[in-house]
Amino acid sequence: MVTLYISHTALACVAAVMIATLVACAQDARPPEPAGPLRVRNAWARAADSGSTSGAYLTLVNTDTADVSIASFSTPIALLAQLHETTLRDGMSHMRAQPATLLRRDSTLTLAPGGLHVMLMDLTRALRSGDIVPLTLTLTDGRSVPVAAVVRAP
User: Fold this and answer.
1) CA-to-CA distance for 34 and 16, rounded, in angstroms?
2) What are the distances in angstroms from CA 27 to CA 14, 35, 106?
3) I need a labelling partner for 4 at 20 to 30 A (CA). Which of 19, 48, 63, 140 fits?
4) What is the Cα–Cα distance from 12 to 7, expressed in whole angstroms?
5) For every residue of 92-140, which 3-state class applies, written as one string?
6) Rounded to whole angstroms, what are the CA distances from 137 to 62, 88, 104, 115, 144?
7) Rounded Cα distance, 103 and 122, in Å
8) At a CB cut-off of 8 Å and minimum separation 6, what does 132 contact?
9) Residue 1, C-beta contacts closer than 8 angstroms, at least 6 positions apart
C-alpha cells in the first residue's frame, strides 16, 4: 500500500488551477456572435400578458461592407411583429408601422422606448422577466439575423 501525502500549499495550488480552468472554459462556452451583416446589442422586451402587446428594443450595428435594409421581423411568440415608430403629435403619442428601414454601412440603429421599436402584437404566451423572446430580423436581400431578447419587467 502506498500512502501519498500532499501539502496544503500544493493542494491549494491544484485547486486554484482547476478553478481557473473552469472559469476559462465557461467563458469559452458563450455562444459566438453570429456572422452576418448586423451585430445585435442589448436586445430586450417588455413583460406582458398572453394576448396582449409588448415591445422589443435593441441596437443594430451594420458591420457589412454595404448598406442593408431591414424588411421585417418575426417571432413564434406573437401573431405579428412589426417595426413601429412612436411620435408625439399635438401632445399625443402615436405609433405607426415603418416600411423597410435602411441601415448604412458602418452605422448603428438603436430601437428604444419612445422611438423605433418592434411591436409584438397578440402574444401567444405571457412574457415574464427572464424569459427569452426569439426574433428573426429579415433583410430585403433574404438574409436573416437571429435575435434573443431578454424580457424585463416594465
Assistant:
1) 33
2) 20, 19, 28
3) 19
4) 9
5) EEEEEECCCEEECCCCEEEECCCCEEEEEEEECCCECCCCEEEEEEEEC
6) 13, 26, 16, 18, 6
7) 28
8) 148, 149, 150, 151
9) none
Q: pLDDT digits over 56-85, tens only?
A: 999 999 998 899 999 999 999 999 999 998
DSSP 33: P
* pLDDT, tens digit, 9 for 90 and up, residues 13-61: 444 444 444 444 444 444 444 457 899 999 999 999 999 999 999 999 9
Task: Please report which helix (H) or strand (E) contains residue 87, including its range.
Answer: strand 78-89
**pLDDT at 126 (0 to 100):** 96
- Let me know: does 44 contact 112? Beta carbons within 8 Å: no
What is the number of residues in the chain? 154
Joined grid coordinates for residue 145? 439575423
Residues contacting 152, CB < 8 A, separation 6+: 44, 45, 46, 47, 129
Neighbouring residues of 15: CB distance < 8 A, sequence distance ≥ 6? none
Q: How far apart are the first and last CA of the chain?
A: 65
